[in-house]
Amino acid sequence: MNWRAIWTIYRSEMARTFRTLVQSLVAPIISTSLYFVVFGTAIGSRIETVEGIDYGAFIVPGLIMLTVLMQSISNASFGIYFPKFIGTIYEVLSAPVSFLEVVIGYVGAAATKSLMIGLVIYVTANLFVTLPVKHPFAALGFLVLTCVSFALFGFIIGIWAKNFEQLQLVPLLVINPLVFLGGAFYSISMLPPVWQTITLFNPVVYLISGFRWSFFGTADVGVGLSLAAIGVFTGACLLAIWWIFRTGWRIRS
Amino acid sequence: MAAIVSVENLRKVYDSGFEALKGVDLEIREGEILALLGPNGAGKTTLISTICGITRPTSGRVTVAGHDVVTDYRASRRLIGLVPQEITLEPFTKVMVAARFTRGLFGKAPDDAYIERLLRQLSLWDKREAMTKELSGGMKRRVLIAKALAHQPRILFLDEPTAGVDVDLRKSMWEVVEALRADGVTIILTTHYIEEAEAIADRIAVINGGRILLVEEKDRLMRRMGRKELTIELQCPIDAIPETLAAFELVRGEDGQTLTYSYDRAAERTGIVTLLSALSEAGLVLRDLQTRQNSLEDIFVGLVREEA
């Protein structure tokens, strides 16, 4: 393993993050606060509780997941797309590094950034509602796993994308609906039976459900199933990335 | 001298079906400066990219100091530094940071003293804290060289290092190359500026249409293929070349005032003495004489045209 190369990529990517730290953090804080004002206060005051949990608190895990998912994808996809776009990727391609090292460097940095944002949102949420975390280690585990797996997914999008439009396309067309229909703002038991079944094909449901369980101890689907779903998703992303580097798809001619 | 890079029957067919390299054989000797000469689209960049690991070979084999560039890529790439043709730099990165990055990427322990020496040598030390986007084109190119040398490679590839660079900078670039050679670094440069190859290379390889047309010592190549021209300026213009001079195959200048005679400098008899006496017999009075060595450019154009 070329650990020094991994560390070099990671540090360089993190430096880019810290150069734009204010933008990176302020945007999620503002949007989280807006969600609280709209859903937590305006609408939430009429809903009161979902499954015995105060609605304002109920939406927090989903809200964190929503931002973390989006951030992981956009950080990682931009992180690898940018050197491809400006041409500096030649350096990584001609360096004595394996695909695994490149992925750990880029994805590690993207996941770190979204993890930081996730924690910031958690702290911000505490200003609006009281938020006990029943299983803190499980919560952290779910959060880290989500950051990593969706950063992997973002990395794939970054390699696949041929222009900036495509870079925006997947998050906008696929991830956004999946997150909104993934139970971020409601319990899936509130849906009609048919939609409950359909929802079970949405991988995001398992993430949010598992994450919510670690806060409140209740879940839409079993925790084991949630973990398995993230595991499968991570595995699929790793497999895709392994294939990309083996064939040089869209990066090495 | 032993070969440090060895290319055997290398073929590269791109996905589009374009065959960029059609069975290239090339040995690059340790410590030399090899100029890879060829017109646009000849396969220069593809050849370099394959040796550096950016492009995958379709068939054939490339080894760097005995390490196969595909199966043993870590060992081979560690020895190589690459300066790409296009100026590609992260715009918001500082010069010093950019050099450190490459060094780390190649797995070398940080050594700021070395980076400082390198930046000073390339006249970049004053700009070490500047962001690369603030630099002039020539400086950016030197940053690329600094990055390529940051991990102390034994082989340096310069892909058209002086394209679009002014004369002063080109000269200073050549000095850098000379200094590197003195340090024992093997240098391969692609160029279509013949004067560049002529000025600094030890050996010249000419590539066109994906094939190496020749590889030869520069001096020998110039001697072997270099013809000389003798230009004779006459006192009075003439309308036609006299019959008695037909054997010399002279070329009359447009104004009728000059005659050009080409000859092989390496030949036993150049025929100059005979020509001069024949001229005076024909009653032509000379005003001035001038000889000119054929440049590599002429050789190169001749070769490429022959190929076509």
Automatic annotation (TrEMBL), chain A:
UniProt GO molecular function: ABC-type transporter activity
GO cellular component terms, semicolon-separated: ATP-binding cassette (ABC) transporter complex
Listed InterPro entries: ABC-2_transport_permease, ABC2_TM, ABC2_TM_bact-type, ABC_2_transport
Ranges of residues in domain ABC transmembrane type-2: 19-248
Transmembrane segments: 21-43, 55-73, 140-161, 167-186, 198-215, 221-245
Cellular localisation: Cell inner membrane; Membrane
Tagged with keyword Cytoplasm: no
Domain of life of the source: Bacteria
Keywords linked to the UniProt accession: Cell membrane, Membrane, Transmembrane, Transmembrane helix, Transport
PROSITE patterns from the UniProt entry: ABC_TM2 (PS51012)
Membrane topology: Multi-pass membrane protein
Family: Belongs to the ABC-2 integral membrane protein family.
Name of the molecule in the record: Transport permease protein
Classification lineage: Bacteria, Pseudomonadati, Pseudomonadota, Alphaproteobacteria, Rhodobacterales
TrEMBL record, chain B:
Domain ABC transporter: 5-234
Keywords: ATP-binding, Nucleotide-binding, Transport
Domain of life assignment: Bacteria
Keyword field contains Cell inner membrane: no
GO molecular function annotations of the record: ATP binding; ATP hydrolysis activity
InterPro entries in alphabetical order: AAA+_ATPase (IPR003593), ABC_transporter-like_ATP-bd (IPR003439), ABC_transporter-like_CS (IPR017871), ABC_transporter_ATP-binding (IPR050763), P-loop_NTPase (IPR027417)
Protein name: ABC-2 type transport system ATP-binding protein
The organism of origin for this protein: Amaricoccus macauensis
